[in-house]
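Course exercise 7: structure representation. Students receive a sequence record and must write out the corresponding structure in token form. The form below is the worked example handed out in class, using Zinc finger protein (71 residues). Read each field label carefully; the graders check that inputs and outputs are placed in the correct fields and that the protein name is recorded exactly as given.

STUDENT ID: A-19
EXERCISE PROTEIN: Zinc finger protein
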Amino acid sequence: MKCYLCKLQGKDTDAVASCIVCGMGVCIDHVVREEVDLWEGGYPFPSKKLKNKIPRMLCIPCHEAYKEGKK
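STUDENT ANSWER:
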């Protein structure tokens, strides 16, 4: 898989991860490792935020949207 953001810039770079939100392949320069909250509970809503966070790989556009939602 190739990095989609590099391809838009005319480069041909191997991807190291897929964005957990949009699925885009991203290289090491375009991936963001984010520690996200973990919730326990079922439908319709999670009931309890757990103490530990879990790592997730995001592309830069999804990471910016994620951060915007936390303001």
